[in-house]
Amino acid sequence: MTTVEPLLPASRLAPFDRRRQRIAADPRRARLYAWLAPTLVTLLAAVLRFWNLGHPRAIVFDETYYVKDSWSQWALGFPAKWPETGADALFLNGGTDAFLDQGSFVVHPPLGRFFIGAGMALFGADSSTGWRFAVAVFGTATVLLLYLVARTLTGSVVFATVASGLLAIDGLAIVMSRIALLDGILTFFLLLAFWFLLLDRRRHLERLTAALERPDGEPPAWGPVLWNRPWLVAAGAAFGAASAVKWSGLYALAAFGIWVVVTDALARRRAGVRLWPAAAAFRQGIASFLLLVPAALVVYLASWTGWLVTDDGWDRHSVDASPAQGFWSWVPLPLQNLWRYHQDIYGFHVGLTTPHGYQSPAWQWPLLIRPTSMYWNQTDAGVEAVSSIPNPLIWWAGIAAALFLIVRFALTTRWQYAAVLTGLVATYVPWLLYPERTIFQFYTVAMLPFLVLALTFALREIVGGADAGAHRRATGQNVVIVFLVVVVAISAFWYPVWTGITVPYEFWRLHNWLTTWV
């Protein structure tokens, strides 16, 4: 909800505040800036992501799985096997129909591949622009979405512009919008679900407050159970879509499901509800679960439609000869087969310990020890590199800001801090449970929007609150401006090695600040 700040004498304001107050005093200019800011930031994000998107024209890193699987899934309804040798070269040379008629064991749900396949259908299966088009669209949309999230959290155009601008120019966000992997699409749906939850919170608390108002002033024992929460259903659907891209979306569904219950519990406590813990957990909590989780399940199952309505997908008829007995016998055979497939996928994920030169356990991620080299090629003209390293200043400052936010939340209990920290917990902490698994630094793209929000909150603390003096505000604003200028300069310095631009070898070497970055 947007807050209206009182107009103060110009002599009592820092220079930036004076300009901001002049804009706020003119409704037409204020509306113009409110539209212009997200438009310009989104255009910047689009340019950085779509420029020369088809370069390098090579199957980069794990594109070897997602590109071919996405295309066969688009053509057949399910991912198919490819020739065991030379499939990438065959595909690049136009053999895009060389897939076999046998289902391939693919360890992620279908939705992300559906979007990648749609881009290939639009531009041609052998077009590197085509197989990266969808991730560029989602990456650009994520920047706009972060603006909306930040604006909903604070009501501030400046805050929202800084947050979305940082994401627009960050290297990890750019690279994961230019390589046909699933994590950028996952990030969009997680952030979309988060935005829907913020909208639900605002509406739910307003309706709860109105429902708890009583003429006699006597606090109720339980309070009402509110079912009319369309934004919560929408959040469930978005979490279902995230889980239909990668299963890590389930962690966020669980974490934010708890957040929804806790938010309701605290609201009832503030309103004087006598049995507020039980009311939130066992009455409204059950209703919230039934609004959130079934919507996620429906979207998730719908993403498997292509596999369910065809016959040759992996495990499609694995239990037809010996269907489930007893209680589960009523489950249709296609769903029994789908369950068996999911058991195979789960077994793969928990047992994935294949060594990889760029693997990075989750404890290393905050320190940025081992970013992933997606592509590297050296010719007489120079070096072409694509490294999924974030802007180092954004990343390390964001980690420090997250720790700062924990302290500030302990002191102030601001709900905005709790929401952002919940997002960070949901997208990072679960990976600590699998120290032996082969995982990579680029998975952190899902936590990056929440890290940027934490950083932006910290920058706002540096500026100071509205009650701070003009000198304090001016000093803080200057510090933040210098910080943002340095961030932009670092992104400009790194952009060539995020996008595979040919650069001299020594220029590339200048980016290896740590020996583990090579």
Please provide a written account of the structure.
- With 518 residues, this protein is mainly alpha-helical.
- The protein has a domain of 114 residues.
- 61% of the residues lie in helices and 3% in strands.
- It has 19 helices and two strands.
- A two-stranded antiparallel sheet has the order 1-2.
- Helix 11 packs antiparallel against helix 12.
- The longest helix is centred in the middle third of the chain and has 30 residues.
- The N terminus is likely disordered.
Q: What percent of the residues sit in helical stretches (DSSP H or I)?
A: 55-70%
Number of discrete helical segments: 19
Tell me the structural class: mainly alpha
The largest β sheet comes out as: 2 strands, antiparallel
Succession of helices and strands:
HHHHHHHHHHHHHHEEHHHHH
How much of the polypeptide forms β-strand, as a percent range?
under 5%
What is the typical, i.e. mean, pLDDT? 92
Q: How far apart lie the N and C ends?
A: 46 Å
- Spans of at least 5 consecutive residues whose pLDDT stays below 50 are 1-10
> How many DSSP-defined strands?
2
Please give a quick description of this structure:
With 518 residues, the protein is mostly helical. It has helices spanning 15-25, 27-50, 63-76, 87-92, 111-123, 128-154, 157-168, 171-175, 183-212, 230-243, 249-270, 276-302, 305-309, 333-350, 392-412, 415-428, 448-463, 470-499, 505-509, and strands at residues 373-379, 382-387. The model is unreliable at 1-10 (pLDDT under 50).
